Amino acid sequence: MRKRPARWSDRADRIHAATPASRDRSVDALRAFAILGVVLGHWLVTALTMTNGGLSTTSPLAHMSGLAPVSWVFQTLAVFFLVGGHVAAQGYASARARGVSYGAWIGQRLRRLFRPVAAVVTLWVVTAGGMLFGGVDFDTVRSLVKLVLSPLWFLLVFAALTAATPLVARLNPLWPAAAVAGVDVWRFGFGGPEWVGWVNVAAGWLVPYTLGAAWSRGAFARRAPALLLLVGGALTAAALILWGGYPASMVGVPGAEVSNLNPPTIAAVAFGAAQCGLALLMRERLARTMRRPRAWAKVALVNLSAMTVFLWHQTAMMAVTALGLLVSADLPGLHTVPDSSAWIVARLLWMPVFAAALMVCWAAFRTYEQGASGRGGRVVRVGSAPVDRQPASEREIANA
C-alpha cells in the first residue's frame, strides 16, 4: 500500500526536532528575510514594457518618485552582508580551531555559492543565442540578459569579502565607511572621475560585513550598540537625503543622474547601518518566533535554496511576462508603463504568478545548489562541519 505523504505540521515538527539546540535560528531568519526582500523588491520595482516592438526595462520609481520609501523596505542587501560577515567570521574561527586549512574552508564556501550560478549562466547563454538566431531584436535580448545577470555583481563582491575574511574580520567598520565618504566627496564635491566611485562597491559592502564579523565576536551582546547603529544610521541617511542632495531611493532608478546603489554612496551605507541595527535589535524576537516548528521549517526551507531563489527570480518574472505576450501585449501590471496606482494594484496581483513560476525554476534547478545532498546524497552539514551520513531529509533542511 502506498504511503500517504506526511502532513506539513508533522514535517515541520521533524525539522524542528532535527535542528541542533545550539543553532542560532535568528541568523537563518535574517538571511531568509534579506533574500526574500530582494526578490519581492525586484518584482515590484522592475517592469518590462513594449517599446518599438521590443521589450525594454523601466521602473515605477522612474515615473512615481513618491514610491521611493518602498525601496527602504525591500533593499535588504545590507542585512545579507551582515549575516554573511557573521557566519564567515564564526565559521573561519571554528575551522581554525578544528585544524581545517584556509583553502579547504574557503573552497567549501565558494563551491556552495557559485555552483548554482553555472546553471543560470549556461541557460541564458543558450537562450540569448537562440533568441538572436530566431530574429528577436538585439535590444530586447540585451535588456533581458542584463536583467538576469546584473544582480550577480553582488555575488562577486560577497565572494571577495568572504575570501578576505581573515584579513577584514577585525576591521573597524568606520574605516570603510570613511573611505566611502571620501570617494563621494571627491566625486560630487570636487568633480572626480566617475570610475573612482567603484571603489565603494567593496568599501560600501565591507561596512555591514565587518559589522557582522563584530557581531560574531560579541560586540552586540548588549542592545545599546545596535540601537546606536539604528538611530545614527537613520538620522545620517535622512540628513544626506534632505540636505546633501542624495536621492531618496535606495535602489537604482533608470534615467537618474545619481544612484545610491551603483556604486554605493555614503547615504546607502548609512541606511544599511540603520537596517543592520534594526536587524540586530530584532534577534531575540526572531529567536522566539523560530522556536515555533512551522515558522522554523519555512525559514529552513528558504535557506536551503536561498541562492536558487535569488538567481532564478528574475527569470521567473520574465517567463511570465513572455508568456503573457501570447495573450496580449498590453496586460496591466505586466507590459504596461508603470506610471499609476492601477499599475501597482495589477502588479501585486501578478506576484503569486511570479512566485509559482519561481517554484517551477526551483524544482528544476535546486539540486545545483544543494549538490549531493539535494540529490539524495550523503553528507549532512551544520555550517561547515559534517554531522552524519544519510539521504536528503528533514535533518538536512534543518541544518542548511
Average of per-residue pLDDT values: 86
Number of separate strands: 4
Number of domains: 1
- CA-based gyration radius: 22 Å
Broad structural category: mainly alpha
Largest sheet: 2 strands, antiparallel
SSE ordering: HHEEHHHHHHHHHHHHHHHEEH
Give the overall form: globular
**Spans of at least 5 consecutive residues with low confidence:** 372-392
Number of contiguous helices: 18
Q: Which percent bin holds the helix content?
A: 55-70%
Oligomer type: single chain
Characterize the structure shown.
The protein has 400 residues and is mainly alpha-helical. Helices cover 68% and strands 5% of the residues. Strands 1-2 form a two-stranded antiparallel ribbon. It has a two-stranded antiparallel sheet with strand order 3-4. α1 crosses α15, α2 packs across α15 and α2 runs parallel beside α16. The two termini are 32 Å apart. The relative contact order is 0.16.
